[in-house]
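batch_manifest entry 22 of 60
target: Nucleoside triphosphate pyrophosphatase
source organism: Methylobrevis pamukkalensis
requested by: lab member K.T.
priority: normal
notes from requester: please return C-alpha cells only, no post-processing; we will run our own comparison against the previous entry in this batch. if the run fails, retry once and flag.
--- input ---
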Amino acid sequence: MTRLILASGSATRASLLTQAGLIFERRAPDVDERTIEATLEGTGAGPDDVAQVLADVKASEVSRLHPEALVIGADQTLSLDGVRFHKPADLAAARQQLLDLSGRIHTLSSAVACARGGEVVWRHVSQAHLTMRPFGPAFVRHYLSIVGERALTSVGAYQLEGMGIQLFEEIDGDYFTILGLPLLPLLGRLREEGILEP
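--- output ---
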C-alpha cells in the first residue's frame, strides 16, 4: 500500500483528509513562503501561480525526504484588486485586513500538488470568489473579541466554517477550495493512484 503524507501543518487540511477517510501522516515542510513569493515578484506570476508554486515546493520538499511516499502539498492565496494578502501577524493587522475586505469581492486561489521521489507528478488549482458584506469597525471589534487569535491562522482573518460566515454576503466557489484544499480533484487523483477504491 502506498504511504501517503500531507506536507502541511494545517489542522483544517488534515481534518478534511481525515473526514474523507484517508489514512496519512503529517510532515510540515521547512519552506520559507515569503522568500519563495519574493522570487516570483516581477515574473508576471498571478495568485493562482503563486499558490501552485508554493504547493509544489511543499510537496516536493517533503517528498525528497520520503521518496517512496505520495506527498500532498497545498497552499492558498487571497487577492483583491491585484494585491495579495497573507495571514495577519497580529489582531491589529487582522482588524485592518477585514476592514479592507469589507463590502468587496476577493478571490481565493487554492492549489494542491502530489509529489513522488522529489518530483511533482500532479497539480491542480481552483478559485473561489467571495463577497464580504459591508461592515464597520464596531462589528470587526465584536468579531475579533469572539474569535481572538484564531483570526491569525488563516489568510483573510476568517474561518468560513465558524463565525467567519457572518462576514459574507455571497460566495461563488467550492467549499473545499475556500478551506484551502481542492478536495474533489485530489480524491480523483488518489483513485487514479490506487490509493482509494475506484
